[in-house]
Amino acid sequence: MLSRSDDSMEFRDRILPDDKREEFKKPIGRDFKEEEIIKLDKGSKLITVGDVVSLVVRKHGVVPFLSIYDGMTERHEMTEFSSMVEENRWDVTEVRNPPKMITAELIEAVKNAFEGKTRIIKVEGEEDLATIACIVLAPIGTHIVYGWPGKGMKLVTTDELIRKEAEILISMMEELE
User: Fold this and answer.
1) Cα(64)–Cα(137) distance, rounded to whole angstroms?
2) Does residue 8 register a pLDDT over 50?
3) Residue 25: inside a domain, yes or no?
4) Tens of pLDDT along 67-102?
5) DSSP 151
6) Phi-psi category of residue 86: left, alpha or beta, with phi > 0 → left and psi -120 to 50 → alpha
7) What confidence tens digit (pLDDT) does each residue in 96-143 have?
8) 4 located within any domain
9) Pairing mode of beta strands 152-157, 174-175
């Protein structure tokens, strides 16, 4: 399993079985409007997951603790945030994370962020399930803003209950050899 406090356990790649997909389609957190960005508690860590979300937050002058993106939005290439990253020469950690998966590479990169080793993760594949990993690994009180395809942004603030929900979702995924 994946646990914030137990680094001794090796996380293996996990894949979402087709019969569990409906469980993962339920949003975690609440709708989040663009104008709320400036109201976020400045003392809390902020994580953005998704190209559009990461771009919008940066355009409001807010620098997330961690941004995770894949260069795509709703299956179409999204170059504006990628261009921003390149133009500013921000350090990027690249990880492999195929669709419907949470890979050990992604988990390691997120853990490294909390150790101060990375601030931007570019995913080769899909970053959709990265939100769940971030919920489990982030300190309590962390704000995570992520894209909800076709509907806008969602905000989840980590607490023990939300973390438990994310751990349950991860446990539903099949561990790969």
Assistant:
1) 16
2) no
3) no
4) 999 987 656 666 789 889 988 999 999 999 999 999
5) T
6) alpha
7) 999 999 999 999 999 999 998 889 999 999 998 999 999 999 999 999
8) no
9) unpaired
C-alpha dihedral over 105, 142, 80, 90, to 10 degrees? Answer: -60
Overall domain count for the chain: 1
Label residue 136 exposed, middle or buried (CB < 10 Å: 0-12, 13-18, 19+): buried
Q: Stretch 2-7: mean pLDDT, rounded?
A: 50
Contacts for 148-155: CB closer than 8 Å, 24+ residues apart: 148/27, 149/74, 150/74, 151/31, 152/31, 152/32, 152/33, 153/31, 153/32, 153/33, 153/34, 153/53, 153/56, 154/27, 154/28, 154/29, 154/30, 154/31, 154/32, 155/29, 155/30, 155/31, 155/32, 155/36
Q: Which domain holds residue 92?
A: 14-20+32-175
Residue 8 lies in a domain: no
Strand 120-125 to 93-97 pairing? parallel
CA nearest neighbour of 166 among 129, 125, 127: 129
Q: What is the mean pLDDT of the chain?
A: 90
Residue 108 to residue 165: CA distance in whole angstroms = 21
Residue 26: inside a domain, yes or no? no
Q: Which structure tokens are listed for 40?
A: 């976020």
